[in-house]
Structures are given as structure tokens and as C-alpha cells.
Amino acid sequence: MEKSILAAKTFAALRSVIKAPVTELQYTNPYELLVAVLLSAQCTDARVNLVTPALFTRFPDPHALSCVTTAEILPYIQSVTFPNNKAAHRAKLGHVLMEKHGGSIPQSVEEIEKLPGCGHKTAEVVASVAFGIPAFPVDTHVFRVSNRIGLVSGKTVKEVEVQLKALFPKSEWSEGHHLLILHGRYTCKAQNPQCTSCVLATCCAYKAQMDMLPATVVGLKPRLGAYYCADCHQYCNQFIAITDENGLEQGSCPQCGSVHLHHTKTGKTAMKIRDFRV
Ligand code: SF4
Predict the structure, then answer these.
(1) pLDDT digit string, tens, across residues 18-65
(2) How many folded domains does the chain comprise?
(3) Residue 226: inside a domain
(4) 206: CA distance to ligand 1 center in Å?
(5) 170-186 and 140-149 are packed helices; what angle lies between their axes, rounded to 10 degrees?
(6) 148 CB near ligand 1 (under 6 Å)
(7) Is residue 245 one of the residues assigned to a domain?
(8) Is 121 one of the catalytic residues?
(9) How many CB atoms within 10 Å of residue 96?
(10) Does residue 201 have its Cβ closer than 6 Å to ligand 1?
């Protein structure tokens, strides 16, 4: 399927099931959004939303944040991931916002990126959500989902961002970012994608590859070996590692060289497909 057709189908299908493609972080102004996005690095939005009400009451603006030490911030964010680092960055953030930006949040991706603790993704999220600037931030969900569907073929976050921005019109970037995040969070999960109930099941490249994997074999005998070769019908305890045409390491049968090995305990195929988890 042509990428542009797949892109249109993907967003149409996701719009039909995701009625409110917006951030799940709770905030009331750009300052709160910036702090919440920074706290959400490698942490869930739900966890961040538990700590921000008290944090924003105690430190309601950049000025309040600039007057405190790391130790004073730490108790408010103790339950998010990497609290020490994040507390240290928040204290510096208050100073920089007061000294360089007069207590306001800068509105361009380039300026936000220069703030303490801010990377490109954070800057794109804040610029897009708070100020309506077209951006397509790529987080772990966007990276995984867009690769799985086949919208992009990117090994790095930067590659995926460039390809997504080329594929969709600017007017759809911000909405698309949220559609892909929410789809990844609730349906196309990293460990256990819900393909059978997914609205993209008929056009998803990953699902098509999954469907082509050999079916589970029943009645195998684990006492004869950890693996069973479906081609030569021999059991073995170790396979020979080979790299397939997609660069993935596969196990091959030491007797006949076939990659059609099955785990004898489960009967499931030992063949792998690229998963795009980061
Ligand atoms: S079909 Fe499966 S892999 Fe593809 S987008 Fe849906 S949940 Fe993800």
C-alpha cells in the first residue's frame, strides 16, 4: 500500500476510536505543562498527574521555582522516576526562566530546547501543545507504533520524526502525535499489542508479518530437546544463530539449517520479527 494512502487510512481509523487526541497530562498554563512534560520523561502521565497538584500549589510559577533548592523540590516529586535529577533540573529551570525569559516560557522549539533538562521531544511537545506550533514529537509510543504500522522505517527517533513530518501535512502533526501516543498506550502496547481488536489490523505491516509466522505446533516433547525443527522433524537443545535479510538474529536448526524452529514447551515458533520496542 502506498505510504500516503496508509497514512490517510491510519489517521481516519484512529480518529474513529480516539475521540479526544490530546495530552493526558494535567496543566493550566504553559509553565505547568513544561514542568509536567519534564517530569513525564520515562514516567507515566498518570503518575505525574498524582504529584503535580501539590507541586504547582507550592511552586505556582517560575519565580517560585527560582527561589528554592533541589532539596525543597524533591519531596514533591519523590514518586516519579529519577526524582533527584528532575528536582535538580527544576531548580535550575526556575533560575533560567527568570533570568533569560522574564518569567515566561519561550515559544519556539529552539529556545525551549536550551532550557535545563529539556530535549528536542520536550520542546516539540510544549511548543505544539501550549502554543499551537506545528510539531510531531516522537516518544517511545510514536516510534514503536509508526514503525509497526509501516508509516515509517526509522532506526532512530530523528529518522522517524523526519519521515512522519514528510508524510503528513503540518496541520495534522500535533493531532497525529497524540493519536499515535494514545494508540500505543492503550492498544499497540510494547509487550502485548491488542492486534485482534485493533482498527488498523487490516493495514498494519507488523500484524501482516505476525500472521505469516508459522502456527503453533502441538504435541511436542520437551524432554527430547528445547527446540523442534518443523522441516527435518529433529529436536535440539541449541540452535545456530544466523542473521536474516532484515538484520534480525534468528535461530537455525543445527541438522538442516532451517529457521522453522519451535519452542518445545509452548509449541510457538522461535522465529522473530522486528518489534521496534525502545
Ligand atoms: S494491528 Fe497490532 S501491531 Fe498493528 S497497530 Fe494494531 S495493535 Fe499495533
Answers:
(1) 999 999 999 999 999 999 999 999 899 999 999 999 999 999 999 999
(2) 2
(3) yes
(4) 7
(5) 90
(6) yes
(7) yes
(8) yes
(9) 17
(10) yes
Give catalytic status of residue 139 as yes or no.
yes
Type of residue at 153: S
Encode pLDDT of 246-270 as tens digits.
888 999 999 999 999 999 999 999 9
Say if 163 falls within a structural domain: no
Amino acid at 208: A
Q: Which of 151, 185, 187 to mutate to test the pocket of ligand 1 (most atoms within 8 A of CB)?
A: 187
- pLDDT per position as a tens digit, 108-143: 999 999 999 899 999 999 999 999 999 999 999 999
Structural domain range at position 64: 30-131
Over its C-alpha atoms, the chain yields an Rg (Å, rounded) of 23
Q: Let me know if residue 247 belongs to a domain.
A: yes
SS (HEC) of 64-119: HHHCCCHHHHHHHCCCCCCHHHHHHHHHHHHHHHHHHHCCCCCCCHHHHHCCCCCC
CATH number at residue 108: 1.10.340.30
